[in-house]
């Protein structure tokens, strides 16, 4: 390894272990990605269809380019798997640590004019999402992990020029203890698997909220809902940031057999059906 490569690798290792510094370094890029999306949302965008028949727009691509540049500067040398690059067949060799980028999660919602879309960066180490940052520009909210067991939310707008987490009001994210007789459940608005109803038949559900994007993880992380169930396919970049934030807030994400959702297991990077729990997994009881 050449001296420069050694130095860069060491620098990356330091940066990716220090979540507050990583969050500060990524913040301007995440905000810039959100600003690009807001600009295209106001102007209107042409919708293209990807080979997997999901929609994509110029906003997805421009936002992704900004995030890739930000990661190259903030964490040089750490591989990045990003949704639109991956769709074009460009996936790097992943080591034990890599970033997952979804520049515009909830593209269907974005196209419809809904505010339920997000910018997402997750960091996976040894198959586990450990760091995540999610920004919802219309909602004006940013969610980020600042350490093991610490995730925060802050109100933030696209036109902030010198954003810094160090100087702003942060709300600690903490999940709530579920009321097993009156559960609040979150599920996808755009992707309704019929089997969700069958799954929920085992639980005493008081309210089902449908929503778009990784904001569903954030609702559970902030203690507004008890779990998010997703039985249809998702990609690893849809879930890594949300899972890291939820885990730091007291929750967990499991496959339907109760095992933790882990990453880097398959070539296609498709997640199995999962549930994002506010606390420990809840066994079905109601029949
Ligand atoms: N057949 C499929 N395979 C992989 N991921 C899928 C999929 N159908 C939907 N998704 C994922 O579900 C996400 C949207 O879910 P929701 O509407 O609940 O937020 C999409 O994110 P993108 O908008 O980033 O493409 C997409 O990645
Ligand atoms: Mg997505």
Please give a structural write-up.
The protein has 287 residues and is an alpha+beta fold. The protein folds into two domains: 3-172, 2-Layer Sandwich (Fructose-1,6-Bisphosphatase, Chain A, domain 1), CATH 3.30.540.10; 183-277, D-Maltodextrin-Binding Protein, domain 2 (3-Layer(aba) Sandwich). It has eight helices and 16 strands. A seven-stranded mixed sheet has the order 3-4-5-6-7-8-9, sandwiched between helices. Strands 11-10-12-16-14 form a five-stranded mixed sheet. Strands 1-2 form a two-stranded antiparallel ribbon. Helix 2 packs antiparallel against helix 3 (58-74) and helix 7 (215-221) runs parallel beside helix 8. The longest helix has 25 residues, at 19-43. Mean pLDDT is 92; it is low at 1-11. The structure holds adenosine-3'-5'-diphosphate and magnesium ion. Magnesium ion binds at residues 102, 105, 238. InterPro entries: CysQ, CysQ/Inositol_MonoPase, Inositol_monoP_metal-BS, Inositol_monophosphatase-like, Inositol_monophosphatase_CS.
Strand content: 25-35%
**In CATH's first tier, which class of the largest domain applies?**
Alpha Beta
Low-confidence stretches: 1-11
Helix proportion: 25-40%
> Spatial order of the strands in the main sheet?
3-4-5-6-7-8-9
Number of helices, counting only DSSP H or I runs of 4 residues or more: 8
What is the H-and-E element order? HHEEHEHEHEEEEEEHEHEEHEEE
CATH architecture of the largest domain: 2-Layer Sandwich
CATH superfamily of the largest domain: Fructose-1,6-Bisphosphatase, subunit A, domain 1
CATH topology of the largest domain: Fructose-1,6-Bisphosphatase, Chain A, domain 1
Q: Which structural category do the helix and sheet elements fall into?
A: alpha+beta
**CA(first)-CA(last) distance:** 61 Å
């Amino acid at each position: 390894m050449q001296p420069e490569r050694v130095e860069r690798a060491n620098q990356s290792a330091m940066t990716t272990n220090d979540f507050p510094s990583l969050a500060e370094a990524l913040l301007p890029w995440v905000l810039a990605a959100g600003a690009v999306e807001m600009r295209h949302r106001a102007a209107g965008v042409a919708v293209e269809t990807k080979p997997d028949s999901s929609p994509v727009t110029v906003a997805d691509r421009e936002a992704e380019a900004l995030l890739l540049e930000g990661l190259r500067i903030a964490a040089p040398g750490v591989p990045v798997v990003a949704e639109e690059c991956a769709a074009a067949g460009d996936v790097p060799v992943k080591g034990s640590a890599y970033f997952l980028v979804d520049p515009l999660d909830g593209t269907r919602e974005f196209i419809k004019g809904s505010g339920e879309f997000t910018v997402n960066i997750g960091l996976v180490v040894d198959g586990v999402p450990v760091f995540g940052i999610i920004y919802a520009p219309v909602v004006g909210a940013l969610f980020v992990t600042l350490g093991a067991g610490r995730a925060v939310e802050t109100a933030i707008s696209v036109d902030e020029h010198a954003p810094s987490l160090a100087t702003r009001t942060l709300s600690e994210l903490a999940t709530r203890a579920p009321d097993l007789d009156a559960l609040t459940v979150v599920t996808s608005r755009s992707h309704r698997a019929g089997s969700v109803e069958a799954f929920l038949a085992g639980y005493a559900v008081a309210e089902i909220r449908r929503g778009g994007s990784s904001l569903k993880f954030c609702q559970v992380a902030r203690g507004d809902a008890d779990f998010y169930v997703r039985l249809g396919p998702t990609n690893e970049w849809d879930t890594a940031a949300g899972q890291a934030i939820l885990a730091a807030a007291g929750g967990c994400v499991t496959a339907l057999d109760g095992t933790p959702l882990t990453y880097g297991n398959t070539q296609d990077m498709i997640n199995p059906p999962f549930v994002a729990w506010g606390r420990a997994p809840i066994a079905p009881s109601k029949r």
